[in-house]
Design goal:
With about 475 residues, this protein is α/β, with parallel strands linked by helices. The chain is about 35% helix and about 20% strand. It contains 15 helices and 17 strands. The strands form four sheets. Strands 5-6-7-3-8-9 form a six-stranded mixed beta sheet. A five-stranded parallel beta sheet has the order 14-15-16-12-17, with helices on both faces. A hairpin with a 6-residue loop joins strand 8 and strand 9. The chain is globular, with a radius of gyration of 26 Å.
Length: about 475
């Protein structure tokens, strides 16, 4: 597909909430018509903030954003707003238009077909599964046929068929698309280039090429910059030793030392400001509190058939070191089931009294948005240990400047890492994991898979990420669709 004129340009764009912690610092990049680009950067670097600047929700502190006159923009957000949960499908999509659409049903039918979702238009949004909500978010962005389509983690909660359908749609989309995603395979299928946001320099670099090539190119550049800095650092240390020697000699030697000191200061200023590719979290261990009895006895489970809850008999016992994977198509009720098991509301799935449960919710609704990272972690400790809390947070890339941040101020990826930090301190006997790869940068996933493999407790997991699941030992798989 030929790329047309520049449709969007960031010109010396600077943005911050706190001027001491910039998100963008004189950032520059441009997007052409019909281009398919991804924004790449660390969790919390500000990728979603760029989308909010494009949408006009935030305003730059300095610089400009140029958008071609007459351009329409649509965004598929990560989560449906709480205010939309009580709306019907028709009411929800009506909100995508500024004026009343008398042929709204026709528009809805077109976009629901594009995202491969069939449903009753009178159904309430709250009654859809996580995967179905992901499709509704995408359809909402598409319904007005925007010139620029912004997609924030669009594959979260989609099964493999849904991801394939979305990929095919984006390949054929005849307008501009900018995507934020942790799914490297998905991105590599259709993107033409990468806008890399560096969380250290707060600047952007633009690369043309497929995703994996760009990732390797950035890694090569960082390695070269680090080598150059290492050489300069060695030279600076040599000069400092000479300065110390000459400064004690007096006379001309002392003047020479003064001149060399100025040269060293200039050399230190000229060191390359190495861009920092996404850091990977170090290996970690989730301890499991000892428990001699079976953790969960499952004799029946509630699943959705034809939009109605139906109880199905099963016979499964989850013990320590036993991993159960639950699968099934979007809409069958996997998230609802896990929530019911974790809360004790699923009568056919009895968690033994005394079992300590670590529950990863795909929407992070178990993390109070007004609590800080420190308070969340502190609540999991029997005895407060200030140093351990700080060390655990830093291990999951939530260092000192983030630990007093309320959860509501974290990116979705940082919330995911916080959940694993909490498990480290909680030491659960049973892990219940609902899409634990959602929003997590792909570089962290092998480390998380290793931690789950080494975990000695019981585990019940739902995940559509087949590459991730291929790294985890599973003892038993239950397909809800086959019940």
């Amino acid at each position: 597909m030929d790329h047309g004129d520049v449709i969007l340009r960031f010109d010396e764009a600077t943005f911050y909430f706190d001027h001491r912690k910039p998100i963008l610092a004189a950032a520059n990049f441009s997007v052409r018509e019909n281009a398919k680009l991804t924004i790449m950067g660390q969790n919390g670097a500000g990728k979603s903030t760029i989308f909010k600047l494009i949408m006009g929700e935030y305003k730059l502190k300095e610089g400009q954003i140029h958008i071609k006159k007459g351009t329409t923009i649509g965004i598929a957000k990560q989560v449906i707003a709480p205010a939309d949960m009580e709306k019907t499908v028709s009411e929800y999509f009506a909100g995508a238009f500024t004026e009343k659409k008398y042929d709204l049903d026709r528009h809805i039918a077109k976009v629901l077909d594009a995202v491969n979702l069939k449903t009753d238009y009178s159904k309430k949004i709250k009654d859809f599964s996580g995967g179905q909500k992901a499709r509704l978010l995408l359809a909402f962005a598409l319904i007005a046929e925007p010139d620029i389509l912004l997609l924030d983690e669009p594959t979260n909660n989609l099964d493999s068929a849904g991801i394939d359908h979305l990929t095919s749609f984006l390949i054929g989309y005849e307008k501009t698309a900018i995507v934020i995603s942790h799914d490297a395979n998905f991105l590599n299928c259709f993107t033409h280039g990468v806008i890399h946001l560096d969380s250290h320099t707060h600047k952007t670099d633009q690369y043309v090429g497929d995703y994996y090539d760009v990732v390797q190119r950035i890694a090569d550049i960082i390695e070269a910059e680090e080598r150059q800095n290492a050489r300069m650092e060695k030279d600076i240390l040599d000069r400092k030793e000479k300065i110390n020697f000459f400064s004690h000699k007096g006379g001309k030697m002392r003047k020479l030392a003064s001149k060399m000191r100025e040269d060293v200061e200039e050399a230190e200023e000229n060191k390359v400001d190495v861009r920092r590719e996404d850091k990977t979290i170090p290996p970690f261990n989730i301890e499991a509190t000892e428990f001699p009895l079976p953790l969960v006895n499952i004799t029946a489970l509630t699943v959705m058939h034809d939009h109605k809850p139906v109880s199905k008999k099963v016979k499964i016992t989850v013990r320590r070191r036993h991993r159960l994977r639950i699968t099934g198509p979007n809409g069958i009720g996997k998230t609802t089931l896990l929530e019911a098991i974790a809360s004790g509301r699923e009568k056919g799935a009895e968690i033994t009294k005394g079992v300590k449960v670590g529950y990863y919710r795909q929407d992070f609704s178990g993390l109070p948005t007004d609590k800080t990272v420190y308070q969340i972690l502190e609540a999991e400790m029997e005895r407060q240990n200030h140093q351990e809390i700080y060390a655990t947070a830093a291990r999951f890339l939530l260092p000192g400047d983030k630990i007093q941040t309320p959860v509501g101020g974290l990116s979705e990826g940082q919330k995911g890492l916080l959940c694993f930090a909490r498990f480290m301190l909680q030491k659960p006997t049973l892990l219940i994991l609902d899409e634990p790869t959602n929003h997590i940068n792909f570089r962290h996933l092998p480390v998380i898979a290793q931690a789950l493999n080494e975990y000695e407790g019981g585990m019940i997991i739902v995940s559509h990420d087949e590459e991730f699941m291929g790294q985890i030992r599973i003892d038993e798989e239950l397909d809800l669709g086959a019940l």
